Amino acid sequence: MNKIELIPLNILDERRQLVSFVKDVASRLGLQFGWHYILDIVWILEQIEILGIPKGSVILDAGAGNGIVQFCLARLGYKVISVDFSERNPSYNIKRVFKIINLISNKTDFNHKYLNHLKTTLPLQQSIIKESHKIILNILSKIRDIFSQDLKPEITFYKADLQNMELIQSDSIDAVVSVSVMEHNEAEEAQNIMRELRRVLKKNAPMVITTSASGIEDWFHEPSHGWAYSERTIAKLFLFSDTQFESNYGLYDEMMEELRRSEELKKTLSPMYFKSGDNGMPWGKWSPQYYPVGIVYTKLQ
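The structure assignment produced for this chain is given below.
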């Protein structure tokens, strides 16, 4: 069944081995965590387990940037298509461990408010934008070629607008994941993205995504340039108004208090937060204003 789940803090205790795996991948690649990303990523990987997505399946990471979950999935044996609106320049550490294939669409220029926000206020997190020298028009053919090679884990970087992934065929993807991306889009954009993600999914295939939750009303968190959504809005945007879903949203206030008292997340807050007031935890002061929430949606037809 579809579900909306405020991600419980005890997942860090119950899945210590998975937590260690994620942190090890991040450490080896020299990557930093967003303040709640360890919760998001462990929850997503756990859902992939629960859903029984077999190794070797093609998983699309929507709005991946240089985020950690795509590398975790590749290490676990999945074929990853990493989609983002920026052309990325992976570090030496990443290229040492993974084979990165760069694919781009004909539409090489994107104008998005959040991209501009990253370029001006979060230089430690932004992807490096550079001019493309190669256009590849048949992504699926290329993916078949690269995945047939018995090499180190491979990730296909696809530069595209999530609202129009023109090179990915309909009904071709085994699962979609996304970490804390949707809240950086206006409602109409988010709905367009969800329709496009649904298009590329195979029948009976799942989306497993995380975003930001508010208690009652939607509101905009200016420092991180992202929305915090109510349960009603999440159901409308991400579950296509399907009324049949599981939810623990009734525990929002209780879980929010527990999050604010979390010493583990507070102590592991990334140094990047202490250098700016334009992020999810301005100037490194531990004061969560929204709660990480996970959504599972299965395409039935």
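Interim note for the steering committee: The CA atoms of residues 2 and 297 lie 5 Å apart. The chain is about 35% helix and 20% strand.
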